[in-house]
Amino acid sequence: MVLIFDEVMTGFRVALGGAQAHYGVTPDLSTFGKIIGGGMPVGCFGGKRDIMQHIAPLGPVYQAGTLSGNPLAMAAGLTTLRLISRPGFHAELTDYTTRLLDGLQQRADAAGIPFVTTQAGGMFGLYFSGADDIVTFDDVMGSDADLFKRFFHLMLEGGVYLAPSAFEAGFTSIAHATPS
Amino acid sequence: MSRSETLFANAQKHIPGGVNSPVRAFKSVGGTPLFFKHAEGAYVTDEDDKRYVDYVGSWGPMILGHSHPDVLDAVRQQLQHGLSYGAPTAMETEMADLVCSIVPSMEMVRMVSSGTEATMSAIRLARGFTGRDSIIKFEGCYHGHSDSLLVKAGSGALTQGVPSSAGVPAAFAKHTLTLPFNDIGAVEQMLSEVGQDVACIIVEPVAGNMNCVPPARVSSKACASSATSMAWC
Ligand SMILES: Cc1ncc(COP(=O)(O)O)c(C=O)c1O
Fold first, then answer.
1. H helices within B154-211, ranges in order?
2. ipTM entry
3. Would the pTM of this model clear 0.90, i.e. be above it?
4. Cβ(B209)–Cβ(B217) under 8 Å?
């Protein structure tokens, strides 16, 4: 049996080496996307050599793509990966994200609104919920999606664009952390 | 009417729901989706010239902020040499080497054009490698929209209140076994019952498509060790 980590979202974000580096668990195969293309359409899968050697043209598992490895996409992705490889990048991104969430929590507490946040490096979750922590799917579904809806539109009015759904993660960038 | 409202009305004539990916339609928050025309640093600008601090980041890719000058320069440089060849390039090896050096578990990589293709291909590979059909995924985890993976999925699927899609044949879906996220007991139980038929476990190590749910530490470790102990058997 093969363990696949889908790091399309977490890869290069939760830590440079992804969630597998952050949590210290080694999968057999991993998938990546998003950051690896720097905004161009790119994905990637890979892992153990003895498994990967089963892919065509080496092996019997067919897989192909007209635009796979597209040069413009590689240029954007390579440059992005090199820039985020600088020491301190992910610590800065994580610190900024924590400050953002602390600020929101303080304001919610002051207003007496039940509110919980979650974070993994440069990604976060906001929940209008009285739960102590968010661990299960039921915890997520127990949050108040109507309150989120109001919050979303108020933030939009105030010039902040959040994911237009109570069931999507939020993402920060190093440009948020170091405003010009 | 704002420009976004006009554009959204026009878009619906020839684009289903006016969007090319469902979550963009604002269905779960109501109102009209904003149409964007510019993005720079931490900001996006809509068609009505209003600027927003952006916490979506194109759903993840824009970790450097938008329009990073070095990234735009690299693309401009390549532009002068053509858009696509359908033949190997030196940059692909640079990319493969870089990914393998950043992520030590990656010994070989294959590039594709989306996350959906990446997970779909990894699942096929796991099935081809093990000679087994069943896969285990977790409720609320989204791995793109290939048929096997649109069973109890998150993201746009969850937003629409239909975690599983119409159009996925029951004969495909039956090979996708779904378990609750962050519940290692359920994984162990399932493996003890049908482990011999399972090609792979696929998991978002931080679930990011049902909001954001980090792994219960013990769960992810145990998941890896039970996977490893079952491996190659
Ligand atoms: C964890 C995960 N896997 C796969 C995908 C699918 O990627 P794409 O939308 O590039 O096909 C996504 C996209 O949101 C994702 O978050």
1. 156-159, 170-173, 184-194
2. 0.97
3. yes
4. no
